[in-house]
Amino acid sequence: MSSGLIPFGWFQVFRLGLVQMALGGIVVLTTSTINRVMVVELALPASLPGLLVGWHYAVQMSRPRWGHGADAGGRRGRWIIGGMIALALGALAASGSAALFAFNPMLGIGAAVVAFTIIGGGVGAAGTNLLALLAIRTPPDRKAAAAAIVWIMMIVGFVLTTGVAGGFLDPFSMGRLVTVTAVVGAIAVLLSIIALGDLADTSRGAADAVPASAKPDFWVTLKEVWADRQTRLFTTFIFVSMLAYSAQDLILEPFAGLLHGYSPGESTRLASMQNMGVLLGMITTAIIATLVGRSRALFMRKWALFGCAVSAAALGVLAMGSVATGDFPLVGAVFTLGIGNGLFAVAAIGSMMTLASAGGEGREGMRMGVWGASQAVAFALGGLAGATAIDLVRAVTADIGLSFAVVFSAEALTFILAGLLGLRVGTTDADHKSIPILPAEQWTAE
């Protein structure tokens, strides 16, 4: 933790979690519900919303710049709230663009590109600096638990939004979609402003702002951060694991609608069930990680592999259900997939929070930005690859069920690879024995 700063207690962590919950509530509407509307209600190719969501992740390649800007100039609160406002406006524009498709497809595409550009910038500015603030102000022995709390609350945002919004979306209409999105965005921004308060502006940088001439160069700082082996290794793990996760993000609700006859409200509630599984997996991991004590680092790496294995198994079941006839336990398979995602996510987040504050002060935002950019690229490629693969296999085979089976199977294999990579975080290349990421005196203090 940075010197000279009062560490966050659990109440302050909870307040940051409320902001993350608000962020997740807006994002889930854009990547899940609006995507489903484009594919099912508007009968657009799955690759189109895949390209749009991929573009919003491409915009998040700017995350290192957002993090570096707050590292150098302080005032993370302004970056976070500004990002949340942009995110809410972008989501509202995205829902409006979906309505435009029915009247003027070209105008709808143009509006959607602008909307998802704003969404990408908002998520990058708010998300990067929120996590950097958490890394700066949380003591080493609380980082894993604090990260779990904040991420669990984001999943709560997913669950609440998809569950409640799903109820208000039926009977479905485009006007109802725009109204629900506007209300969710307004509530999220207001909650973020109240919850954040002055927490961010008491972080390093706001109190000790440096002259512009003394601010570190962005490219020099990026080069220094990337020179660290653990940063590079963890970046690779994030990329592969998020690639596996994101490939199903854009196709799960269309899968439920096309093969199982779910309505927009029903498929949105199915997404809520998945997020409830993620929540259960995260809570389980956080509790067990707290109990294992000093072996926490090794536990996190092995638990990440276990979570990836559970996710892979659930995806295998979904692949079989794509081509099987008769009744299929779709809700149970999706819920199990969520549990697996939650198990490996907390393990990854705990390592991320520890690594972010390692290697000296003033680089937390940059490191979070690098990992956020890696996640963004993986989500852009994964979401686009999943959606495009559905269209390609369907064009060749004229079999929509086989299309989903191929994509789900590929995701399962990628999750296994991600788990194996996760075991290498915190190990040496020479003998693969565990080494602490933090200095020894901080490690033993845990």
Describe the structure.
- With 446 residues, the chain is mostly helical.
- It has one domain (12-445): Up-down Bundle (Growth Hormone, Chain: A).
- The protein contains 16 helices and no strands.
- The radius of gyration is 21 Å and the shape is globular.
- It starts with 9 loop residues before the first helix and ends with a helix.
Task: State the gist of this model.
By secondary structure, the protein is mostly helical.
Keywords:
single chain, about 450 residues, mainly alpha, Growth Hormone, Chain: A, 16 helices, about 80% helix, globular
Give a topology summary.
Elements: H1 10-41, H2 47-59, H3 63-73, H4 76-101, H5 105-137, H6 143-169, H7 174-196, H8 218-226, H9 229-246, H10 252-260, H11 264-292, H12 296-323, H13 330-356, H14 364-397, H15 400-422, H16 440-445
Helix pairs in contact: 1-2, 1-4, 1-5, 1-6, 1-7, 1-10, 1-11, 2-5, 2-14, 3-5, 3-14, 4-5, 4-7, 5-14, 6-7, 6-11, 6-13, 9-13, 9-14, 9-15, 10-11, 11-12, 11-13, 12-13, 12-15, 14-15
Share of helix, binned: over 70%
Mean pLDDT: 79
Query: What shape does the CA trace take?
Result: globular
Examine the secondary-structure arrangement and name the CATH architecture: Up-down Bundle
- Would you identify the regions where 5 or more consecutive residues have pLDDT less than 50? 203-213, 428-446
- Structural class call reads mainly alpha
Q: What sequence of helices (H) and strands (E) makes up the elements?
A: HHHHHHHHHHHHHHHH
Biggest pleated sheet: none
Number of domains: 1
Q: How many extended strands?
A: 0
Which percent band covers the strand fraction? under 5%
Question: CATH homologous superfamily, by name?
Answer: MFS general substrate transporter like domains
What's the CATH class, please? Mainly Alpha
Report Rg.
21 Å
Terminal residue distance? 14 Å
Q: CATH topology, anyone?
A: Growth Hormone, Chain: A
State the helix count.
16
